[in-house]
Amino acid sequence: MATENKNLSEYDKNTIPNAKDFRFGIVVSEWNDTITEGLYNGAFDALIDCEVPAQQIIRWNVPGSFELIYGAKKMLQTQNVDAVIVIGCVIQGETKHFDFVCEGVTQGIKDLNVQTDIPVIFCVLTDNNMQQSIDRSGGVHGNKGTEAAIAAIKMAYIRQQASIAHAYNQPLLTSGALQIEDSPIKIENE
Ligand SMILES: Nc1c(NC[C@H](O)[C@H](O)[C@H](O)CO)[nH]c(=O)[nH]c1=O
Ligand SMILES: CC(=O)[C@@H](O)COP(=O)(O)O
To answer: Can you tell me which residues bind (2S)-2-hydroxy-3-oxobutyl phosphate (predicted)?
Structure first.
């Protein structure tokens, strides 16, 4: 489904785990800052709406989207967070630089998710023009920052529950469904 067929800001709080105890890092690119500020506001407001205390949200700025990789890496290494959201806006220019920045950031953030234990959520717009970015940072298509915040909560929960299941030496729920309960994920036998 393309973004044009869904609103990025819509979420059902009944499907979102308790996030009160989670800590979130948000790394924000300063390139296209009118857009990235809108994305940050969407993410921050969604976390607050899901009852994450403001003091449990850490923000760092970096120059551009390519620096999101290093910024997220240092955030993971030095801060006690349960998930990191990286926020950027890359807009096609005259040259192929767009392709290299987008590919580099995508691969770098993927690598962090593979190499570390903390989920890193990819909130980087890769648009053909400014209007597309406006539309996805609080415009007609909603706010990708909101979507990223909800994803961050859900992934922090999965990490937490997987750790609990591992501690009990039990397999995770085979259904793959996300259990929205305060207690650990129900453990089913195969
Ligand atoms: N053109 C955009 C950039 N370019 C800058 C790079 O991200 C990077 O900061 C530079 O190459 C130095 O390493 N960054 C964006 O975030 N958005 C763009 O549209
Ligand atoms: C994504 C970019 O780096 C790009 O916006 C820079 O513009 P240009 O390709 O015209 O140098």
So the answer is: 94-95, 136
Which ligand has the nearest atom to the CA of 97? 2
The parent domain of residue 53 ranges over 18-155
Taking residues 5-31, what's their average pLDDT? 93
* pTM strictly above 0.95: no
| Counts for the chain of helices (H) and strands (E), in that order | 5, 6
Q: Write the residue with the smallest CA distance to atom 1 of ligand 1.
A: 90
Could you tell me if residue 113 is inside a domain? yes
180 belongs to a structural domain:
no
ipTM over the 0.95 cut-off? yes
Among this protein's residues, is 141 annotated catalytic? no
Sheet of 83-91, strands arranged across: 57-62, 24-29, 83-91, 120-127
Binding site for (2S)-2-hydroxy-3-oxobutyl phosphate: residue ranges? 94-95, 136
The ligand that comes nearest to the alpha carbon of residue 33 is 1
Verify whether ligand 2 is closer than 6 Å to residue 98 (CB atom): yes
* CA–CA dist 43, 41 (Å, integer): 5
Residue 5 has pLDDT above 90, yes or no: no
